[in-house]
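PROTEIN DESIGN WORKSHEET
SECTION A - STRUCTURE
LENGTH: 229
TOKENS:
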């Protein structure tokens, strides 16, 4: 059942805090790195890009070398926004809330990079919402116009979140794995024999029992399958 996304939160874009010399770090080769705090929140990629470029005091031109985790390389901002709209829709993402709380700037290299956090609201009630993070690397020219953007993130982890496997795994860990591990730990500690040797013996015994269970299941399967005539 399709459900409308919740109403968007208040969208803010605060400018960088006043320049603080203590935020400047010098590398061994003399280059400076500025680590600055910010508070940029936006709904949708287009709104976020506009606000974060203002935050970094950069300009957007019609052309850009936009590398999406090496899976798509686009040359125009309009294509970037269209592509993001299409693939989020087909993946069941109704709306994205973006947030960035800090960035790092290397003036000598005309380079900025930041961690982008996105909350993905889903199009259907049976798909869990999830939060994901990506690293964004931005380069600009002498006129402070953005020339290239590279977005790096865990591609497999993103798709596993989209289909709900991460949420299912976390539920299984919370309900099954963790209680069982805690019960085993309490029983193990009560023996007073905690150590590498006894732990290794438990691993060997567990592997032996698992192999016996596997062979028993295979034998049962052969018995249940009728013989071919």
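SECTION B - SEQUENCE
RESIDUE ASSIGNMENT:
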């Amino acid at each position: 059942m399709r459900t409308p996304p919740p109403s968007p939160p208040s969208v803010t874009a605060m400018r960088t805090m006043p320049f603080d010399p203590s935020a400047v770090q010098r590398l061994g080769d003399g280059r400076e790195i500025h680590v600055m705090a910010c508070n940029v929140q936006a709904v949708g990629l287009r709104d976020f890009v506009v606000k974060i470029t203002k935050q970094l005091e950069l300009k957007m031109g019609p052309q850009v070398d936009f590398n999406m985790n090496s899976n798509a390389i686009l040359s125009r901002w309009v294509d970037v926004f269209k592509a993001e709209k299409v693939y989020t829709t087909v993946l069941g993402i109704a709306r994205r809330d973006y947030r960035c709380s800090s960035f790092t700037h290397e003036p000598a290299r005309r380079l900025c990079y930041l961690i982008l956090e996105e909350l993905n609201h889903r199009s259907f009630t049976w798909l869990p919402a999830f939060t994901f993070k990506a690293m964004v690397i931005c380069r600009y020219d002498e006129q402070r116009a953005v020339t290239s953007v590279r977005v790096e993130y865990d591609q497999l982890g993103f798709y596993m979140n989209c289909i709900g496997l991460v949420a299912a795994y976390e539920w299984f860990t919370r309900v099954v794995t963790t209680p069982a591990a805690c019960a085993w730990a309490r029983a193990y500690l009560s023996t007073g024999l905690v150590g590498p040797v006894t732990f290794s013996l438990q691993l060997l015994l567990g592997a032996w029992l698992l192999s016996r269970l596997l062979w028993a299941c295979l034998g049962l399967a052969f018995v249940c399958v009728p013989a071919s005539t």
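SECTION C - NOTES
The helical segments are 45-55, 77-90, 155-162, 165-191, 196-224.
Residues 13 and 40 are 4 Å apart (CA to CA).
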